[in-house]
Amino acid sequence: MSTKTPQTGPKPDQVAAAHRPVSRPRPPRVTGAAHVLAAAGYSLQGLRRLWRETALRHMGLVGALCLLLLAAIGASWVQMGIFAILFLALVATEALNTAIECIIDHLAPDWQEFARDAKDLGSLATMCMLLATGIFLVGTVLVQFELI
After folding, report:
1. Structural domain containing residue 112
2. Domain assignment of residue 42, yes or no
3. What are the backbone angles phi and psi of residue 74, rounded to the nearest 5°?
4. CB–CB of 67/80 below 8 Å?
5. Which residues lie within the region annotated Disordered (predicted)?
6. pLDDT tens, 67-120?
7. What is the CATH number of the domain that holds 108?
């Protein structure tokens, strides 16, 4: 005759439920100008959320310093505009990377290989944009000083 010890702790479905956010009713659909205003509000909420990421705050500081550098070395408006577009693409990539991390942290609170892969790929996308922006910046500086 075997005796089983009672299982202690929460059941797996209770653990999963603990990681789910409290659901709220879906906001009503809006159209026309109200839709544009609502979309702008969602974008600002996203920017506020992204601002909590240290990486974005560092990017913002470095981006502003780079624009000052470009202005100081006499870069053209076109060069500064291209840098600004690359920088905005970098911010968008970081936003997508952060969104991936939020979803993965929700779906896989424990370490799982798919979670690591998803986060690594998001990080790679951000690094590619950082490199593209950096290469453009270095190239612009070299051209301004007639080194290439």
Report:
1. 54-148
2. no
3. 80, 30
4. yes
5. 1-29
6. 999 999 999 999 999 999 999 999 999 999 999 999 999 999 999 999 999 999
7. 1.10.287.3610
**Which amino acid makes up residue 14?**
Q
- What does the H/E/C string look like for 46-69? HHHHHHCCHHHHHHHHHHHHHHHH
DSSP secondary structure code for residue 110 in this structure: S
pLDDT tens, residue by residue, 125-139: 999 999 999 999 999
N-terminal to C-terminal alpha carbon distance within the chain: 85
pTM, whole model, 2 decimals?
0.79
Task: Report the number of distinct structural domains present in the chain.
Answer: 1
**Token match 């560092």: residue?**
58
**Residue 87 in domain:** yes
Q: Is 94 known to sit in a ligand binding site? A: yes
Ordered DSSP codes for 27-47: PPP--THHHHHHHHHHHHHHH
Residue 42 assigned to a binding site: yes
Does 13 reside within a domain? Answer: no
The structure tokens 């010890």 sit at 5
Just list the catalytic residues: 94
Distance, CA of 120 to CA of 97 (rounded, Å): 9
